[in-house]
Amino acid sequence: MSGGFDPLHPRELDLPSRVPLDTDLLSGDAAIALDDAKIFAAPADPDNLTQWRTQLTAWRDGARERHGEPTRYDDDASAWASRCFTVAQVWLWDELFFDFESQRFTPERFLADGRERFGGLDGLVLWHAYPVIGIDDRNQWDFYNVPGLAEAAAVLRAAGVAVFLDYNPWDTGTRRAGDDADELADAVRRLGADGVFLDTLKKADPALVAALDAARPGIGLEGESKLATERIADHTLSWAQWFADSETPGVLRARWFERRHMQHHIRRWHRDHAEELRSAWLNGVGIMVWEVVFGAWVGWNDRDASTLRRMLPVQRGFHRWLIDGEWTPLTVVDGPIVGSTFELDGVTLLLLANTSDADAEYHVASRGWLALHPGDTADLITVPANGIAAAVQVGTETVVPTAIDTVRSALSGETGKRDASFRHRTARRVSAPRWDGPVTPVSVPTVTVPAGEHTLTVRFRMRETGMYNGAPYVDEWKPLPPRLHDPRTLERSVVVAHPVQVAVAEVSEAEYASFLDAIGEYTDARDPERPVTNVTLSRAREYAAWVGGRLPSEDEWQLAATRAGFLRRTPAVWNWTESEHSDGRTRFVMLKGGSAHRSEGSDWYFDGGLQHPEFSAKLLLAGLGQDASDSIGFRICTDQIADGRITGQEETR
Predict the structure, then answer these.
(1) 3-class secondary structure, 191
(2) What's the CA gap between 15 and 40, in Å, rounded?
(3) What phi, psi does 369 have (nearest 5°)?
(4) From CA 318, how far away is CA 323, in angstroms rounded?
């Protein structure tokens, strides 16, 4: 238990809503209460299904009377959202989306991975600022001002993938520029975005909606959680995040109210996505694929990825059935197999799901059915464990739709996978590139870190980034304080192979200016006392190698900080350390020392203020110079080798 709730189980507000079977749901308190449901729970007794469906229809009719018809969906410019079945969320500097070696965006590589493992993406959220924002005064719009990003967005759109930007309404403590609505509208126009993800918000303020409509007709707005029924009218998409379902899968309230509204199921910290996939399938909605949650690896297992690959061709090919067809929820409740039908133009689409951990067979009762997935026959369909299957029935006088052959062709070879194991990723240190330039040794005051084994206490604030390895909130529903942003402590046992001489102070502006002069660059910043800042990790390494040294590791920095004579220049700034890591998707660096800067007003900001030497902060590494900050400086160190030599080119890991 934590903070009065069990993080591994849904909260009361996450649970599905029971639908009264003997109450008027056209109006009244019971009907209004259901306006706030996440999922309408299926009845425990299958004998009540007919009355349950009648009550759902009554609620929808009454809700349309209360809230009006959502006419926005009649606009052709908004129609794209109803086809956006699978969306991924990507940190701009994800190593599938950005190549650190060539320093360029690689959207084509991210899309190729999405096609191979998930069956292709329909949308991509370009996540830009959090969890880095707040380390200095840059605001959320500054983090979208990146060279090459507009071109990367154009590649996505050319591939038929909708581009979403994200809006952080809590960003009020950084540099102020224009009004948020104007700034966001400008970013939408500049990057050619199709939609906006509303971080931490369920819905947008009407003024923001108006500004974005003016910037891009048909803009798709997508909130992070349950969307109020009355706002389905101007938000064509929403997340179904932290939606617990009934034992027999129920009906999504927003989707039942407006069939053209697209929802994306997501449980970001879960390693098993079978339940949300099942609900998305039976409700005809989409999925959010999010494998790197702000630097923490939460990748999908093979079974669930294969389920999504089996879902998407059907959803895309039978899109009209899902939004215009006669939807009858739970026409099949047969042991572990449940199913719903969508009938349009004499063709009935049957979607089946298996709620058990073993393969199950469904015997089709009537004639004329055609299985869509390979291996199934007209009268016997095998639904994989925790997986899905589909079939269609065509009326005797109905023209067979071309979608059937198209979908069956797309599904050829797509059999359900069984492996639901989680594939871990280990973050490993990335060695600094070897310096082949000139070396101009300098003499600076140092403190000595002695050789030997040391036990260090490391303190940090548990953010969604985690620390070195692993996701911080595995299988939790919604991390909340005191688990979220709470102070944590870990012990590190480190071995220092030989004495290390760590500079007592950060490199100054004047010292760094000498380096720039030597390589043919120039800077006006030449103060001999102020720490140099706005230096990328790469450039800090180059300076350290130029003077015959290197950057200290985070452990060496911490050990040096306990020695007499260790200083901090003014203003205090975070220090780069030789601790770049990568798990193949995220690069990060540990910062030490804290800074004079602190962004106020939100717990989502990066850690600020002067910190104790034990404190470490995990900074996700950006490319194209975006890692440079006026709140980050650095100091150098040299290695004292046994024979008395001093060098900065020795491997210390």
Answers:
(1) helix
(2) 9
(3) -90, 150
(4) 9
How far apart, in whole angstroms, are the C-alpha atoms of residue 630 and residue 136? 7
Query: Cis peptide before 571, with omega less than 30 degrees from 0?
Result: yes
- Burial code (b: 16+ CB inside 10 Å, e: under 16) for 210-237 equals ebbbebbebbbbbbbbbbbbebbbbbbb
Task: Give the pLDDT confidence of 408-458 residue by residue, as tens digits.
Answer: 999 998 988 999 999 999 999 999 999 999 999 999 999 999 999 999 999
pTM recorded for the entire structure: 0.96
DSSP 101: T
Spatial separation of the C-alpha atoms in residues 257 and 403, rounded to whole Å:
26
Half-sphere exposure of 5 (CA within 13 A, CB side): 16
pLDDT in tens, 452-509: 999 999 999 999 999 999 999 999 999 998 999 999 999 999 999 999 999 999 999 9
pLDDT at position 571: 98
How many Å apart are CA 482 and CA 381, to the nearest integer?
Answer: 48
- Dihedral sign from CA coordinates of 310, 313, 319, 321: negative
In order of 25, 216, 457, 492, 627, the CA distances from 559 in angstroms are 68, 54, 11, 12, 25
Tokens of 235: 């938000």
The residues near 402 (Cβ < 8 Å, ≥ 6 apart) are: none
403: tokens are 């979608």
CB atoms within 10 A of CB 461: 18
Give the integer Cα–Cα distance in Å for 481 and 491.
Answer: 23
Backbone angles phi, psi at 651, to 5 degrees: -80, 125
Helix (H) or strand (E) holding 490: strand 487-496
CB-CB contact of 242 with 478 (8 Å)? yes
Average pLDDT for 526-532: 97
Helices and strands (H and E) in the chain: how many: 14, 33
Phi and psi based region of residue 453 (left: phi greater than 0; alpha: psi -120 to 50; beta: remaining): beta
Measured CA distances, 34 to 17, 189, 229, 233 (Å): 7, 38, 10, 17
Nearest-angstrom CA–CA distance, 53 and 251: 10
Which one-letter amino acid corresponds to residue 609? G
Largest CA distance in the chain: 93
Q: Please give the residue that has the higher pLDDT: either 644 or 227.
A: 227
Cα 186 to Cα 145, 218, 446, 567: the distances in Å are: 11, 16, 49, 44
Q: Are 572 and 595 in contact (CB under 8 A)?
A: yes
Whether the per-residue pLDDT at 649 is higher than 60: the answer is no
State residue 652's pLDDT score: 34
Neighbours of 442 (CB within 10 A): 14
